[in-house]
C-alpha cells in the first residue's frame, strides 16, 4: 500500500541537491509519471532576464510542465526567504486544489529549511550597526568579518562564503542587535505551531564521488558560455540601474563576470578563460555549501545520483508519496 502523508497535510514532494546534480532532469522524469506542478526552490530563478547563467528551464519545458516562482522579480528587486515561504505554501495548496501533486525542486537550502521548519522573526535592520560593520569591513575585509562570525555563530559561518558580504553583514548585525546567533532564528518551530507541510518527503540527489559533480559543473559552465552567458551579463549591465551589490548580481557566475567586466581595460579582449576558471571554482564552492546544508537535514532521503539506477530508485521511492 502506498505511504502517504496525513490526510490534512499538503500533497508535496521536495527534491533537493547541489548544483548540477541532475535535479531538473529528475523532476521531469517524475512529471512523466505523475500529474505534478513544479515549484522552484531557487533564489536565482526568480529573476527575469537571468536565463543562461541560472540554467533556467526553457519555454518548452515550462510549457510541458507548469512551473512556479520563476521570473517573478526584476533583478533590481530582492526576494526573501520569508516571501518564498508564503508564496510556496499558497502555491502548494492551489496545486493540490487542482488535484495535482506539488513538486518542490531546487538548490536554495535556506528556502527548504523555512519550508520545513518555519522562519522565526529576526530583529529589524539597524542602520547604525550596519554602518559600523561596513566601516569595519572597509578596514579589515569581509574574510576577517567572516572569521568573527565563525566565533559567534559557527553554524552560519560554515554555510557562508568568506566573501558573501551581504549575509555576513546581516548575520553579525543580528548577533550584535539581539545577542543571539543568526542561525538560531532558523530553529525549528515545535509544538502546535508546527506546519502540516513538515510531512513533505525530502529527496536529496548527492553524488558519492566529488569528481563526478565537478565534471558536470565544468560541462554546464562551458555550455553556458557557448550559449551566450557573457552577452547576457553585458545586457544586464547595459540597463544602467543594476550594480554588483544587488542579490541578483551576486549569483554565482554573474558576480565573477561583472567583476571581470569592471576590471577589463578598454579595448582589451575579455578574459574568457579567467571567467571560466573563476565561475567553475565558485560553482564548486556553492555545491560544497549546499552539501553542508543538506547534511544538517536529517529528514532527507539520499539518492546517490552518480550510482547506476539512481533515477529508477528516485522514481520508485517518490512514487510511494505521489
| Biggest pleated-sheet summary | 6 strands, parallel
What is the straight-line distance between the termini? 12 Å
Low-pLDDT stretches: 1-8, 188-194
| Mean pLDDT over the residues | 90
**Count, helices:** 13
What report would you give on this structure?
- The protein is α/β, with parallel strands linked by helices.
- 49% of the residues lie in helices and 7% in strands.
- Strands 3-2-4-1-5-6 form a six-stranded parallel sheet, with helices on both faces.
- Helix 5 (127-140) crosses helix 6 (142-152).
- It is globular.
Q: What's the layout of helices and strands?
A:
Blueprint: E1 12-16, H1 23-33, E2 36-40, H2 59-64, E3 67-68, H3 81-97, E4 101-105, H4 109-117, H5 127-140, H6 142-152, H7 154-159, H8 165-178, E5 202-205, H9 210-226, H10 229-238, H11 254-263, H12 272-295, E6 301-303, H13 310-319
Parallel strand pairs: 1-4, 1-5, 2-3, 2-4, 5-6
Helix pairs in contact: 1-13, 3-4, 5-6, 5-8, 6-8, 9-12, 10-11, 11-12
Pick out its properties.
322 residues; alpha/beta; 6-stranded parallel beta sheet; 13 helices; 6 strands; 49% helix; globular
